[in-house]
Amino acid sequence: MVMDMAIQTISTTAFDDQNPGTSGLRKKVKVFQKPNYVENFIQSIFNSVGDVSGKLFILGGDGRFFNKEVIQKILKMAAANKVGHIKVGLNGILSTPAASHLIRKYKAFGGIILSASHNPGGPSGDFGIKYNISNGGPAPEKVTKAIFESSKNITSYKIEDCGDIDIAKLGKTQIGSMVVEVIDPVVDYANLMEELFDFDLIRKAIAGGLTFRFDALNAVTGPYAHEIFEKRLGMKKGTVVNGTPLPDFGGRHPDPNLVHAHDLYELMMSEDGPDLGAASDGDGDRNMIVGWKRFVTPSDSLAILAANAKLVKGYRNGIAGIARSMPTSAAADYVAKKLGLNIYETPTGWKFFGNLLDAGKVTFCGEESFGTGSNHVREKDGLWAILFWLNLLAATGKSVSEIVEQHWQLFGRSYYTRHDYEEVDQTAAKALIEDLRSRLGKLAGTDVAGLTIAKADDFSYHDPIDGSVSEHQGIRIFFEGGGRIVYRLSGTGTAGATVRIYMEHYVADPLKQDDNTQEALAALIVAADELVDLKKKLGRDAPSVIT
Ligand code: VG1
Ligand code: CO
């Protein structure tokens, strides 16, 4: 059916705050609900990414509150901007890695992903819009800067004057000259996972008694997990819990960490916990891996996957290299060194991995913030990491604890923790970083809390592929004896400021590896506070979240 077509050009007034952060534009739902707020940003995307006429785009989101309304606006605006074809997930659902895969598979011009990831949802929660380019990855800084510039000068947007499109059933419809195709959000992604991992081997291990629990935290991975774990891998019903995406995630933070996936963590630490427990976030790009009585830090997980890549079907021929974000621990570096792989250190955010993956310099990437992935897509991928662990357990017959402990014996152990101070006063947080930055030149050789500072700098990244430079990506304090503290401000929060402090310390000798992370890092934790007078300046007694 061809709908009546009427392209309208609507005048609008620019907003000054549509600057994408670490991962897209993220604000309170109430901000996105302001008249023309969504329209301005979407038109700014269409104005900045090149000629979109006749092109294919992928569209979907994590199903959070406001997702469906924004999908309708985007479809109507895309048609008015002469986009040729949009593939949209059924009911507006697409996980971030699935969207990335679809962009690549169907050679789309780009994609728009609606998510605020691990941030809470609902009418008083958060919403987000992210633009991905044709390689399937998040838009690099030069694109997000162009979108922001456009948003500051926008005076009008284009939209089709038509009724809502039914996105609750599969198939094609038309708005003006644009085809809207509602697609199954799961099948292509599940097929890709089946290509990369040895499903037969995992099935056998499950039949042989391997036990597993997946918590989708009421977010987007539910439908993917039901299909992959319960249907294709034949695991018993109930393996996937909280598997129906809810617009408000059941009132929880869809953030797979020790605090927000607490139930799963408790189960894994109990006598009758399964062999492997895992969770993912709002949009499906994060993963938490917990073995029975063994939490695996995301930094260790990246290193372990890289060290064991050849055990897994999709990576049997080995990997080219690893990239990790700067605050991620150096665990992967020790693997790269020993195995002769490339290793890169990038700023926080997946967008910095795209060039390295496209150029074939690296195969695996990871961030300490529960993000792991490979060159199969251009986003981090929660279910990919979880399937990788299942494949490893099946291939080795070992427990998570055994794999982790043997890894530490071979490569040494990087003790690691991140302390977050959330929703603190923005002025105080900025002042704290500025003050530290102003002292950087004088810190080397001085002592703090009994530790001697060897070197201090403000991390800047020179992209080896396109030569672009990204400055002020986090302050690094290196200590004599190998410890490191990193201070940076979050670029995904929507209220006040969030200060993140990352601490790590490497111990090579297995006999000196004690099991309590917070104790092993106690001296650095004290130093992190003393160096900037942290708790006093932020007015807090303790971090909001420790991972
Ligand atoms: C956080 C993490 C970062 C991650 C980003 C997006 O950013 O630290 O590693 O890439 O979230 O993840 P920040 O700027 O708040 O530290 V997600 O799952 O929101 O797409
Ligand atoms: Co996410």
Automatic annotation (TrEMBL):
InterPro entries linked to this entry: A-D-PHexomutase_a/b/a-I, A-D-PHexomutase_a/b/a-I/II/III, A-D-PHexomutase_a/b/a-II, A-D-PHexomutase_a/b/a-III, A-D-PHexomutase_C_sf, A-D-PHexomutase_CS, Alpha-D-phosphohexomutase_SF, PGM
Domain of life assignment: Bacteria
Entry's family note: Belongs to the phosphohexose mutase family.
Species: Bartonella choladocola
Keywords associated with the record: Carbohydrate metabolism, Glucose metabolism, Isomerase, Magnesium, Metal-binding, Phosphoprotein
Keyword Metal-binding: yes
Needed cofactors: Mg(2+)
Catalytic reaction list: alpha-D-glucose 1-phosphate = alpha-D-glucose 6-phosphate
CC terms in the record's Gene Ontology section: cytosol
Name listed for the protein in its UniProt record: phosphoglucomutase (alpha-D-glucose-1,6-bisphosphate-dependent)
Residue stretches making up the Alpha-D-phosphohexomutase alpha/beta/alpha domain: 18-157, 189-290, 299-410
EC number from the UniProt entry: 5.4.2.2
Uppermost EC category: isomerase
Any one Pfam family match given in the protein's UniProt record, by short name: PGM_PMM_I
GO MF, one annotated term: magnesium ion binding
Keyword tRNA processing included in the entry's annotation: no
GO BP annotations, alphabetical order: glucose metabolic process
